């Protein structure tokens, strides 16, 4: 078995098939995971060992037996397996490690740092450059995100709107979203953000745009995400949850990178635009 995103799909069946060959201590771990994999996904190796009554090294060896290079890889596969199924209540219940207010700031910021680092290590640079090229060539750029993802969509739309004059952010609070993209065509690009729990509406909108011939750029956390299945290229963003609050920091960073990359290719127009803005701001006293 390889350490990659596909492992989570076979993880439970792999544990079951290996069970008879496991040591006594490893069988205790296997039984606990099969019955409580949603909890184990957020346990350290030490905590799991304490819970089932085995040593931390036994937990690590168990992960190795399944073909993972270490326990963190097994944990990541478990998180991938469950993250789209977790309700908000379940996320709250798994936030016991955040009960100490003295460590919350440290843990949350470090989690965001880890997510950015993992995103940087895993993102496809060729897909990123292709996305920039598609944006620059598009007749119209539609940007969408549902629920918390709308924050990132709006953020990217704001900055691309400074650079280009053909940007449209699909608003979920202004009429039906399908009505806003009904004229999408084959010369257009749709940039879609979607993270667990994946929104059906986001997938339906992207699928509709794809059927109309538009190019789809998906920014999501997994190649198994619904919108990725219909995308022309996908930018993978790590968003392992620190608690019941989703980590949108890496998605914001990728949005920044897209805006900057597009802006650098249109920098002469941007300069003229900002010159006009500065004169307007000064005339109307926008800033102190």
TrEMBL record:
This is MurR/RpiR family transcriptional regulator. One of its GO terms (biological process) is carbohydrate derivative metabolic process. GO terms for molecular function: carbohydrate derivative binding; DNA binding; DNA-binding transcription factor activity. Keywords: DNA-binding, Transcription, Transcription regulation. Pfam families: HTH_6 (PF01418), SIS (PF01380). It comes from Peptacetobacter hominis. The keyword Nucleus does not apply. Residues 9-85 form the HTH rpiR-type domain. Residues 131-269 form the SIS domain. InterPro entries: Homeodomain-like_sf, HTH_RpiR, RpiR-like, RpiR-like_SIS, SIS_dom, SIS_dom_sf, WH-like_DNA-bd_sf.
């Amino acid at each position: 078995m390889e350490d990659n995103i596909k492992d989570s799909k076979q993880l439970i069946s792999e544990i079951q098939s290996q069970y008879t060959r496991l040591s006594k201590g490893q069988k205790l771990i296997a039984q606990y995971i099969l019955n409580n994999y949603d909890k184990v996904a957020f346990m350290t190796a030490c905590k799991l060992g304490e819970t089932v009554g085995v040593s931390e090294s036994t937990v690590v060896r168990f992960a190795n037996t399944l073909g993972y290079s270490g326990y963190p890889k097994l944990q990541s596969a478990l998180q991938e397996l469950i993250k789209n199924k977790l309700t908000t209540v379940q996320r709250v219940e798994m936030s016991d490690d955040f009960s100490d207010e003295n460590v919350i700031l440290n843990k949350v910021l470090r989690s965001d740092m880890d997510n950015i680092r993992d995103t940087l290590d895993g993102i496809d640079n060729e897909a990123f450059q292709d996305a920039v090229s598609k944006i620059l060539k598009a007749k119209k750029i539609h940007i969408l995100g549902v629920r918390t993802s709308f924050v990132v969509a709006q953020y990217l739309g704001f900055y691309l709107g400074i650079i280009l004059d053909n940007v449209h952010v699909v608003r979920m609070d202004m009429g039906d979203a399908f009505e806003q993209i009904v004229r999408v065509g084959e010369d257009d690009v749709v940039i879609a953000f979607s993270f667990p729990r994946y929104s059906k509406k986001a997938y339906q909108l992207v699928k509709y745009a794809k059927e109309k011939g538009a190019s789809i750029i998906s920014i999501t956390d997994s190649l198994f995400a619904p919108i990725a299945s219909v995308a022309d290229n996908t930018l993978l963003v790590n968003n392992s949850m620190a608690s019941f609050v989703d980590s949108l920091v890496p998605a914001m960073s990728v949005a920044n990178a897209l805006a900057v990359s597009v802006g650098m290719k249109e920098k002469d127009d941007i300069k003229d635009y900002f010159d006009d803005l500065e004169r307007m701001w000064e005339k109307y006293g926008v800033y102190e």
